[in-house]
Amino acid sequence: MKLEHIDLGDGIILDANFREAALLAELASDAQPLVHNGMPRSYLLSPITLDGRTFRPSLYFTDGLLASVHLTWVDPETKGASAWDGFSFDRERSIAKEDAAWLSSYLGKVASADSTFCFNWGNVWSGFDERSGFSAIA
Hints:
By secondary structure, the chain is α+β, with helices and mostly antiparallel strands. 20% of the residues lie in helices and 38% in strands. Strands 3, 4, 5, 6 and 7 form a 5-stranded antiparallel β-sheet that branches. It has a 3-stranded antiparallel β-sheet with strand order 8-9-10, covered by helices on one side.
């Protein structure tokens, strides 16, 4: 599979040309601002399901153009609870491994040693960021 876009549903497709203005026009009530005190500006969206795995996307924009998409797995067992309930570094590392296996299957590719998948339009990374305390696909 070639990853060229992400379908958010309701006719909204994220690709390399997606703009912040389009997000605000289409999903203003659904886009929770994360960072707005400089660049990049970011928004947290409602969960989406891709190939059987549910993620919470965060979109990052620089100068109004989509710069990065982060997908954070939604644990069905923590529904309604804080994302920090039950947190442990070991658990997050385990989630990162599950994300990487899912992503490899989804893309039909094997990641490099640092869990990066390379495309002509950019890279997709899957792992655990100890500074932020969570696993994600970016």
